[in-house]
């Protein structure tokens, strides 16, 4: 598969390594394309939107003309995994005029809801569809406030959603790319495999 | 819905969480700010974080005297002003300044040679903090010593406050050359290299095996233009700190935006030309050559 990693800012190489690992685990290979300009994403089968700073990322994807291509990717029903800042940028509303969201995930997001870096943490997280908990790393993480009818909540932290699916998009407020466990990537890109683990 | 998650296994301030925070800064620009007004300009320009300090390095140089951590009032105002992470500078070896910054809620502490060192021999034991630290380094052994003390992020020292990128280039190239050097050595040769360079041996092996530092490595010290920032990305840095280069420029907002865009477009000269066009004068600066060794900041805290 050709995997686009949004690369204007954030933990791009971690996402590139994670999708390669996940693909290899299922006997496929992922050719990673770092997307810093327009014209590359239309060639990609899947998209990964990394963590980083949502203010910076939302500004740069517009400047580089990538925002519209992300909309087209989703409209074509191609899979997306959006983590942390990626989730914020793709959401319907981040309740903050410093971030212009794309409105692709029917959910409102509370930026940095967990607080500052001192409140960042790692913990096992129960996820629907996974037999064992997923070790989740939350870094100045957002929480999902409200979701639309078509949005499926796959995991919550203290009753607030942290992993949701809206059509082809899996939105995640933690960082599955920082650990070796490929199961969240499986849920996004290899659903037939994920169902069996 | 799956079962409730086990709160008792929640861990804060781990190496993964600290280094992970630094990873989220990659490909971004962290800007020095002194006031909340500057912090606002930096966030609007697209900074991934701001660094709170008492005065920008160029002014510290001019003014002389002892440079210390920023006033807590300023730090709190800056934290209230922006939604992006706020970092703060403490003196080398000044554990109490670092504790105060952590208590104020800064997201990362820079144990920085730009301030007057509080301890000539020892750095802070950074492993004991929940807050992650970034430290400066001129070469690989220095970087690995800081990582061994718990630094979650490294930056080149460069020569702060000069607007002269020369020393940042030198430090980054030295670091990269030394990583290539140890990668080419076999086990016993790496052990000897570690001994001779005063570098923690386990980290020497880890770096040699991975072909890169185990933590994020930014460039800092003398970066003043979009082209400077692009040059440091070309030399393999993960991102950029800009100190005096933003608010010492003729138009800080334009310069900040241009440097942010240059870091994303570092490998596209046509884009860089557009980005640099009309950005206004950079900080005046001072060539590192003209600064005597004893006045250079980079020799502090090795």
UniProtKB/TrEMBL annotation, chain A:
Question: What are its GO cellular component terms?
Answer: cytosol; glutaminase complex
Its BP terms in the Gene Ontology are: L-glutamine catabolic process; pyridoxal phosphate biosynthetic process; pyridoxine metabolic process
Database matches in InterPro entries: Class_I_gatase-like (IPR029062), PdxT/SNO (IPR002161)
Q: Which reaction does it catalyse?
A: L-glutamine + H2O = L-glutamate + NH4(+); aldehydo-D-ribose 5-phosphate + D-glyceraldehyde 3-phosphate + L-glutamine = pyridoxal 5'-phosphate + L-glutamate + phosphate + 3 H2O + H(+)
Sites where the protein binds L-glutamine: 52-54, 111, 139-140
Q: Recall the GO molecular function terms of this protein's record.
A: glutaminase activity; pyridoxal 5'-phosphate synthase (glutamine hydrolysing) activity
Give the enzyme's EC designation.
4.3.3.6, 3.5.1.2
Q: Which proteins does it associate with, and in what oligomeric form?
A: In the presence of PdxS, forms a dodecamer of heterodimers. Only shows activity in the heterodimer.
User: Under which name does UniProt file this protein?
Assistant: Pyridoxal 5'-phosphate synthase subunit PdxT
**Organism whose genome encodes this protein:** Halopenitus persicus
UniProtKB/TrEMBL annotation, chain B:
Query: EC annotation?
Result: 4.3.3.6
Q: Which segments constitute the PdxS/SNZ N-terminal domain?
A: 16-220
Region annotated Disordered sits at: 279-302
Database matches in InterPro entries:
Aldolase_TIM (IPR013785), PdxS/SNZ (IPR001852), PdxS/SNZ_N (IPR033755), RibuloseP-bd_barrel (IPR011060)
Pathway in which this enzyme or protein is active: Cofactor biosynthesis; pyridoxal 5'-phosphate biosynthesis
Presence of the UniProt keyword Lyase in the record: yes
Q: State whether it acts alone or in a complex, and with which partners, per the record.
A: In the presence of PdxT, forms a dodecamer of heterodimers.
Question: Can you tell me which family this protein belongs to?
Answer: Belongs to the PdxS/SNZ family.
Q: What does this protein do?
A: Catalyzes the formation of pyridoxal 5'-phosphate from ribose 5-phosphate (RBP), glyceraldehyde 3-phosphate (G3P) and ammonia. The ammonia is provided by the PdxT subunit. Can also use ribulose 5-phosphate and dihydroxyacetone phosphate as substrates, resulting from enzyme-catalyzed isomerization of RBP and G3P, respectively.
Name of the protein in question: Pyridoxal 5'-phosphate synthase subunit PdxS
What is the name of the gene encoding this protein? pdxS
């Amino acid at each position: 598969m050709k995997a686009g990693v949004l690369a204007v800012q954030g933990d791009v190489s971690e996402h590139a390594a994670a999708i390669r690992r996940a693909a290899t685990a299922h006997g496929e290979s992922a050719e990673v394309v770092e997307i810093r300009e327009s014209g590359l994403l239309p060639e990609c089968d899947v998209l990964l939107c990394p963590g980083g700073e949502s203010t910076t990322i939302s500004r740069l994807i517009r400047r580089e003309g990538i925002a519209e291509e992300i909309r087209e990717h989703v409209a074509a029903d191609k899979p997306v995994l959006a983590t942390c800042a990626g989730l914020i940028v793709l959401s319907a509303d981040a309740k903050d005029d410093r971030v212009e969201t794309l409105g692709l995930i029917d959910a409102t997001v509370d930026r940095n809801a967990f607080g500052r870096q001192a409140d960042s943490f790692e913990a096992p997280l129960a996820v629907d569809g996974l037999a064992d908990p997923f070790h989740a790393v939350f870094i100045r993480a957002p929480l999902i406030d409200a979701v639309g009818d078509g949005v499926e909540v796959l995991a919550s932290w203290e009753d607030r959603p942290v992993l949701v699916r809206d059509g082809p998009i899996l939105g995640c407020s933690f960082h599955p790319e920082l650990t070796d466990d490929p199961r969240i990537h499986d849920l996004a890109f290899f659903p037939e495999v994920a169902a069996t683990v | 819905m799956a079962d409730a998650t086990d709160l008792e296994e929640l861990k804060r301030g781990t190496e993964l969480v600290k280094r992970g925070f630094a990873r989220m800064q990659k490909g971004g620009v962290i800007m020095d700010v002194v006031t909340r007004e500057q912090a606002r300009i930096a966030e609007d320009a697209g900074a991934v974080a701001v660094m709170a300090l008492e005065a920008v390095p160029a002014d510290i140089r001019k003014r002389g005297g002892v440079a210390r951590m920023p006033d807590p009032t300023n730090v709190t105002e800056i934290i209230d002003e922006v939604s992006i992470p706020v970092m703060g500078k403490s003196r080398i070896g000044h554990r109490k300044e670092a504790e105060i910054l952590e208590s104020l809620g800064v997201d990362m502490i820079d144990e920085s040679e730009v301030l007057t060192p509080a301890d000539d021999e020892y750095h802070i034991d950074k492993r004991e903090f929940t807050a992650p630290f970034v430290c400066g380094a001129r070469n690989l052994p220095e970087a690995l010593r800081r990582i061994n003390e718990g630094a979650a992020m490294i930056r080149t020292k460069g020569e702060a406050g000069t607007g002269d990128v020369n020393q940042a280039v030198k430090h980054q190239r030295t670091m990269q050359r030394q990583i290539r050097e140890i990668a080419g050595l076999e086990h016993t040769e790496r052990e000897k290299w570690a001994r001779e360079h005063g570098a923690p041996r386990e980290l020497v092996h880890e770096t040699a095996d991975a072909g890169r530092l185990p933590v994020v490595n930014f460039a800092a010290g003398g970066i003043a233009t979009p082209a400077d920032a692009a040059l440091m990305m070309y030399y393999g840095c993960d991102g950029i700190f800009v100190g005096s280069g933003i608010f010492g420029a003729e138009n800080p907002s334009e310069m900040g935006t241009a440097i942010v865009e240059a870091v994303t477009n570092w490998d596209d000269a046509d884009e860089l030309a557009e980005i640099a066009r009309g950005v206004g004068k950079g900080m005046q600066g001072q060539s590192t050559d003209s600064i005597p060794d004893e006045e250079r900041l980079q020799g502090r805290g090795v």
